């Protein structure tokens, strides 16, 4: 395989990987956001202690932002309209996970949530790197 073919194959695999991770992030954040929007606060607090201490508007607001992010991680790149929103969303997801790690640690929930937070953080950073530096999508 010559260098040009190998570079194209690598680029295709990277692009497919980025799309897969973007879709997984959209599904995960969409579900998490909807859960925070529609689930009664006392029920949320059974799984996430902060939900019982934080104001309801904060918990619901995080949910709405997560749902918006679920769209923002995929649609701008897919439609090639304001595609810069995709890496921006990935950056925001990364900041959300760093904050979540701190909040869960404060509530002694590190063992329960840290692995999941680190996976989401890694996925978000991968999309940020891929869609910002390595394989950006150009807007039309």
**Secondary-structure element series:** HHHHHHH
The gross shape turns out to be: elongated
Q: What is the CA-based Rg, rounded?
A: 17 Å
Distance from N terminus to C terminus (CA atoms, Å) equals 33 Å
Low-confidence stretches: none
**Quaternary state of the chains:** single chain
Structure explained in plain terms:
The structure is a single chain. This protein has 7 helices and no strands. With 140 residues, it is mainly α. The chain has one domain (3-134). Helix 1 packs antiparallel against helix 4 (56-72) and helix 6 (85-106) packs antiparallel against helix 7 (110-134).
Give the tags.
mainly alpha
Helices and strands, with pairings:
Layout: H1 3-38, H2 41-47, H3 49-53, H4 56-72, H5 75-79, H6 85-106, H7 110-134
Helix pairs in contact: 1-4, 1-7, 6-7
What would you say about this model in short?
The radius of gyration is 17 Å and the shape is elongated. The protein has helices spanning 3-38, 41-47, 49-53, 56-72, 75-79, 85-106, 110-134.
């Amino acid at each position: 395989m010559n260098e040009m073919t190998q570079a194209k194959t690598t680029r295709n695999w990277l692009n497919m990987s980025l799309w897969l991770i973007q879709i997984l992030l959209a599904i995960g954040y969409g579900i998490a956001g909807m859960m925070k929007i529609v689930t009664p606060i006392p029920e949320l607090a059974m799984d996430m202690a902060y939900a019982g201490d934080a104001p309801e508007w904060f918990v619901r607001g995080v949910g709405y932002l997560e749902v918006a992010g679920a769209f923002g991680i995929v649609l701008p790149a897919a439609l090639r309209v304001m595609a810069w929103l995709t890496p921006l969303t990935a950056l925001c997801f990364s900041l959300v996970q760093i904050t979540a790690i701190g909040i869960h640690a404060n509530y002694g929930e590190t063992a329960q949530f840290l692995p999941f937070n680190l996976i989401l953080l890694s996925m978000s950073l991968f999309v940020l790197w891929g869609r910002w530096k390595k394989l950006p999508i150009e807007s039309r």
